[in-house]
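Methods — Computational structure assignment.
A single polypeptide chain was analysed. Its primary sequence is given first, followed by the predicted tertiary structure written as structure tokens.
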Amino acid sequence: MPFARMEEISGKLAEAVAAYMKEKDLAAGKDIFFLVSSDGNHYGQDFKNSPYGEGEQAWEKALAFDRRLIKTYLEGPQGPAGIEELTKELWGKTYLDYRSTYWCGKYSVPFGLLTAEKIIDRVLHKKIRGSLIRYSDTYSEGVLPIKKMGMGLTAPFSLRHWVSFFSVGYYLD
């Protein structure tokens, strides 16, 4: 969905959630929290996404790209202007240019941030601030240490096929 539509829908959702919080006397961070979950970028031949080529240097460049996006747009104080800039970088020139990056959360993360930011503003008249908790990727992490659950490898991981992931916490500014 285009950013303008995202702004409109997040405003309506924030209004409904804020009204519910007030009605039930729910406190943000104590009784209610917001979770937006997503993979980061999917890199490699399998995804037809090798903007930096292949190999260890390409992997390092891709990690640097992801970390720059996180530092520039997801950490620190939030607001619609910064979130809109994130969508421009993730989507390419238009929201229809879906191949500009393979971040799974290129729609859910901006929408979730807009909604949470608006709820906190309506309920507490405050802003939120993001702080990176952890960043990693499937190439660095290797096989998950899960055994005797009947699960096999869900996907290969190598310099030709890997996914980044991260956690950012948001707190009152």
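Note: The chain has one domain: 3-132.
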